[in-house]
Structures are given as C-alpha cells and as structure tokens.
TrEMBL record:
Membrane-spanning segments: 60-82, 103-126, 161-179, 212-232, 309-330, 429-448, 460-481
Subcellular location per the Swiss-Prot or TrEMBL entry: Cell membrane
Name this protein carries in UniProt: ABC transporter permease
Main location: membrane
Organism: Paracoccus marinaquae
Keyword annotations from UniProtKB, A to Z: Cell membrane, Membrane, Transmembrane, Transmembrane helix, Transport
Amino acid sequence: MPERLAPATVVACFTLLAAILLPFADLEISGHDPWAMLGRMLTGFARPDFGAIETLAHSLALTVAFAVAGVALGAAAGFALAPFYDRRLVRILCIGLRSIHEIFWALLLIQAIGIGAPAGVLALALPYAGIFAKIFAEQIEESDPRPRNALPPGTDAISRFAYACLPLIRAPMTAYCLYRLECGMRASAVIGFIGLPTLGFQLDSFFRKGDYGATSAILICYIALIASLRLWMRPRLAPLWIAGSLALLAALRAPPMGEGALWRFLSEDIIPRPLRSGEGLTGLLDWLGDLTLTEILPGLWNTVIATQIALVLTGIVAFLTFGLTVPAVTGRWGRYAGHLFLVVLRSLPEYMLAYLFLQIFGPSLLPAILALGLHNGAIIGHLVGREADSLVPGLRPDAPRGLNLWGWELAPRVFGSFLALCLYRWEIILRESAVMGILGIATLGFFIDSALSELRADRAVVILIVIALLSALIDTISLRLRQRMKIAGLRDSDCARTSALSADAMRT
C-alpha cells in the first residue's frame, strides 16, 4: 500500500461510487406539473408580501432567541467539559451528543418534556456542547505552552488556565462562537418545521396555504438576518442578547405535560418493548431483527445513496463556484454577484432547501440530494474562494486573469483544501441526509419520525444509535483519508475558524 494516497485517486473513487449508486436512487419527479408549480413559486417570490409583519417579526425574534440561548448554553457546557476531554468517558459523551442532529434532539425532547422553549433550547445546546468541548479542547492543546511554563511551580491548574492559557485562545474561541451562532440560526429556523414557533413554522404554514408572497418575505428576512449577523452580534453585547433571549423565551407558554412525563420517558418509553414486557433476550433479538430488516436497512441504504451522490454534487458545485468571489476571475461586480449567490445558498439550511424542492418535485431522494449539494457546495465554494483570493496578490504582474487564472493557477493550488473540506463535510452530509426523512423522504429520519409519531420511542432510539455509529465511522474514514493524502486536515476547529474569520464577506 503506497504511503501517500493521490487526491485524484480519492476523487475518482468517490465519483465512481456515486455513479454506481445513481441507478439505485429514487430520483422520480412525482410532483403534479412541477414546472407549473415552479412558475407559481417564482411569481410569488418576485412579489414579497410583508403584510403580516407583526407575526413575522415575532418569529424572527424567537428564531434569534432560540439560537442565542442554545449556543450560549452549549458553549458554557462545552467550556466546562473541554479541560477533561482527554478522558475517555467525557470524549464518548461528547461524541454521542454531537452525533445526533438538532432536529432529532428536538423530536425526542418534545416527547419527554413537551413542545416548549426548554425543548428548543436543549435541542441546540446538547449537540453544540459536544462540538464546543472538542473545539475548545483542541484550542487549549494548541495554545503556546510557554506562558504556562513560566508561572511558579505551585500555581494551581485553574490559575494557569485563567492567566496563561485563556488570554491566548479567547480570540479564536470568540470567533468560533460567532460561527456556531450562524449555524444555530439555521438550526433554530429548522426546528420550527416540527412545531416550535420559529421561522420554519411560519414558512410551513404559508407554503401549505400557497401564499408564496409571504413565503418570499420570510426568506428575505431570514437571509438578511444571517447576512447581517456580524453587525448586530458583537461580543461585548452578548450578555444583553442572552438576557433578552431568555426573557423572550420565558414568556412562551407550552401545553402542560402529565406528571412524571420525563421520568416515564426515561424509564419506560425508550426501553425496548421486549424488555419492558419481560420477553427476555430472545424477544429482544427478534424485535431487533424485525426492526433491522423492515426499517434500519432500507433507511440506511437510502441514506448512504443520498449521502454519496450529494457529496459528489457538493464537490462539483464548490469547484465550479469558488472562483465567483475572486475579483481577478470575475471582476468587481462579478464578485459581488458571486458573493450574493453563495450567501443565499449557504444561509438557507439544507432542510429548508429540501422543503422548497419537495413542493416542486415531490417526495423522492431528488429534493434531498439537490439541497445537500447546493448548500454544502456553497459553503465550500465560499471558503475555497477566500483562500484563492488570498493567493492573487502574490502572483506576477503578467499573470493571467479570468478563466485562465481560475483553471491554470488557482484550481491546482487550492485543490488540497477543497478536497479536505469536502471530506470534512461528508459526515455532516450524512447526518443531514438522515434528517431529510422527516420530510417524507425514505431515509433513516423517516422511520425515526414514524416511530415517535406512533409513541414508539424505543425504536427511534435504536435508529438514532445506528446514525451515531455510522457518523463516527465516516468521520474516522474521512480523517484517515486526509492523513493518507497528507493534505491540510482541516479539523473541526480549523474549518470552523476559517469560516468564522471569513464570514465578514457575507455582508458584501
């Protein structure tokens, strides 16, 4: 086995795998007259209706409140866990927390504590706590050890961290918190599709009514909110935003849950039915076998197909669009147009894009693949474009411009980072593919949603464990591939830091 794996070989293998899986993908267009539907949607989008501005403003405020509160709680928990991340139990706990998507956490929490503000905040805070713990631990580990070593030998660990380590990592920690808030804004909007009062709830309501003008107004406000995040969320104002968010969420009233609902959920509902009914190991194995054959394997097959095809589409979109933000390639006005195009695609969550495509093409893997490819491709295209733009000032005065610059100079030099980012997003695309099942697409999320709607949380938990294990497997393979190719690994912290520092371009 060669010591170094050629990036071109990896690209060829992933492309070949997607081509092999393509005939097995359900890409049927089942919508009734999809092009007429698309025409009606575009006509409505061209005439945004801000008439229901009071309702829209309240949903916007709640979207921000859930995001701010969830990210703040997750950051606080991650900060507390980070110093102990090298311990096996803490690391396993954090991996488990971040392997489950926010919307799955929301579905479970609604079953346990009801559809209210705590469920929405915890749905964001739990996975983000695992992510923050990993990132903060890496930043602590990578910080310069010399200030800590210069302190007197008897200095306690807390003082060493507070006075010698924290000042060095405060800036990257703040940058990552801002980046994660951007992610939290997208997640906050998405949890509205399952009943929480954020923008997703309003979007779903107006779509069901066919009111595309109001839908357009929601999307415009949402994109503007994301694009202006760096203007209204300043670190020194964070305490005020957190206090205001908690006050707004405290005013929400949720339907009361029965007494002991949480304990019943933890002690009974998530325990496999054969164990609750005393059927023993034989009954449990039969139950698991039936669940595997009827739900896990079909859902897993569709999830993997959607993931692999969407990953290749992501690479195509990113590779073709990264030059849009480089003035030497597209010119000054072309750069502005390219930034706007990529900002719109990266601001809309995959789930929201898939929901839009679902109205046009009907329930198949096609809406999921298109949404995943466009959203993740825009993210990678934006990041790689920023790196490519930083290379231009170092070129010779007689260097080419336009497509020649893009194809012969920039593309070869950023190819390693491009491929590393695609592999980094691979595990994220898998989790998002599973979530698409909630829209009626036959991935693993479809069976989770069905189990919870039938009050069979035990089946949902088993499928969630399968998703977590598969996510961990893909994350491990991705890391090994990046190491074998000897390209910049772009771990979570590196990618997130790059995204956070480059997010100022969203305002352009």
